[in-house]
């Protein structure tokens, strides 16, 4: 699939139902594709997209994906939708991308469900609908798609189209982690850093409060500084509250995987 989609909000799986081999080339599929085999057409399209045994030609890739998709190949539908979404080899058309994802999703394709969720979330080819986005992500996740699991977890963590639930979010993050999700690994690292920052903020606020209280306590035994004790003590408590309240939510704005 499109290499520049790999790190996007919905990284696209290389799904070739006819063959999956790094050694394949366009010549291996051209005869069968020309004879109308939709699986060979899908594979030939991927060769043109990736430059396997031929020059990269996204327009030709789109033509072969379309032929395969018109024969009912859902993998080709997803690949063609990817091209329409970003305008690669075809004129950009979010509506066509959405319709292709929707058709493939209705056929049960887990990657299409994830990408359909993305369209709903971003409002590509359809009115933005966070609840529909979460529903599609969740179906993709439950079907075992790692990107659907990442997105379902993110929605649950931040309350996008569904009530917040850290417990349910962790369930999907764990499933994605088992499939080697780099996104989840980065999220865990960010959370670890947030927790450390929170700890040090609380610790610093506590130490500051204790220091002032200690000064106030010492002042209470000195006839020359007694009038400062209550004021200092009250300021220290306010500083502690302010520090705790200023802890950021740590929302992850990264690409909404």
List the defining traits of the structure above.
0% strand
Structural commentary:
The chain is mainly α and 257 residues long. Among the domains are: 1-92, Serine Threonine Protein Phosphatase 5, Tetratricopeptide repeat; 184-245. It has 11 helices and no strands. The chain has helices spanning 30-34, 38-50, 58-70, 74-86, 94-106, 110-122, 130-142, 146-158, 166-178, 182-219, 229-245. Helix 2 (38-50) packs antiparallel against helix 3. The longest helix is centred in the C-terminal third of the chain and has 38 residues, at 182-219. The radius of gyration is 27 Å and the shape is elongated. The chain starts with 29 loop residues before the first helix and ends in a 12-residue tail after the last helix. The model is unreliable at 1-21 and 215-257 (pLDDT under 50).
Short description:
With 257 residues, the chain is an all-alpha fold. It has helices spanning 30-34, 38-50, 58-70, 74-86, 94-106, 110-122, 130-142, 146-158, 166-178, 182-219, 229-245.
Question: Topology of this structure?
Answer:
Elements: H1 30-34, H2 38-50, H3 58-70, H4 74-86, H5 94-106, H6 110-122, H7 130-142, H8 146-158, H9 166-178, H10 182-219, H11 229-245
What is the typical, i.e. mean, pLDDT? 77
**CATH hierarchy, class of the domain at 1-92:** Mainly Alpha
Helix proportion range:
55-70%
Helix/strand structural class: mainly alpha
What distance separates the N and C termini?
17 Å
